[in-house]
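[audit] Reproducing an earlier prediction to check determinism. Same input, same settings, fresh worker. If the tokens differ from the archived copy the diff job will pick it up downstream; this log only records the rerun itself.
[audit] input (304 residues):
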Amino acid sequence: MAKIRIWWAKYRPTTRKLVQLAAALLQNANLKGFAEGKIYTGQTKAVCVPGLNCYSCPAAVGACPLGALQNALSVSAQRPAFYVIGLIALFGLLLGRMICGWLCPFGWIQELLYKAPGPKIRKSRVTRALSWIKYGVLAVFAVILPLWYGITKFPMPAFCKYICPAGTLEGAAGLLIHPANAGLRSMLGELFSLKAAILVLTVTACVFVYRAFCRFICPLGAVYSLFSRIALAGVRVEASVCSGCGACVRTCRMDVLRVGDRECIHCGECVSVCPEKAISIRAGKLVLKGPETGERRRPDTKIA
């Protein structure tokens, strides 16, 4: 029993890991879809989930906000995209990139891949520079091309069609492995080969680089990062207590320059490493996670 307790103390899942698992299962509650080889088309598919989760995944019970945004922009000449843009803005205002760290199924998959054995590439000025790529991907593939094709030719969710590895893994692979969809395999062409190559590169990168897709490519993370300063929930630092030692930034595997900036996914790992106990996760004045000592600071304390 003692050995079991020691093992459990060392390997027991954290609260965040349990929330990530629960979020993935809730957003993919139609597990029978894998057995049937069909996409769920119920009423909930009209509602966006907060994280990156492919609409075409057989288990998905909601729409991917990034795919919905592209589709809405593609038909914006006929119908304004107010609903999708408003819903994404609501997610951003409430949680910001905390969605990336706690609720995104593909983010969770990337963290599982990183646990695979192998050399790990640490963050640096290079990875910090590469983190800006996702804003270009957002602008070109998730906004400009869908708008352009929608106005001049036909709807084109460019990111989903040409890049998205989550769609290839969750949607295409989830459908193609089913015997009932054997006919679809004969229709695969160069585009699928390109996306399969992107998926292989993404999976490989995530083994060696923590959340490689999330950090460098994901347009949805780029959108939510725009709400970093104003989101209701997230990691907060008490400026009056912080000594500026930098332990939080050094510990973080994301490309942050300070706690809570555009690259912070508010995972809360910095809470336990702060020697001054100055960091907590809050939703407004409500403390969701405080220092390991269990101390709870006054909600009126100055926050950086």
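[audit] rerun output stored. Observation attached for the diff report: The CA atoms of residues 22 and 103 lie 9 Å apart.
[audit] end
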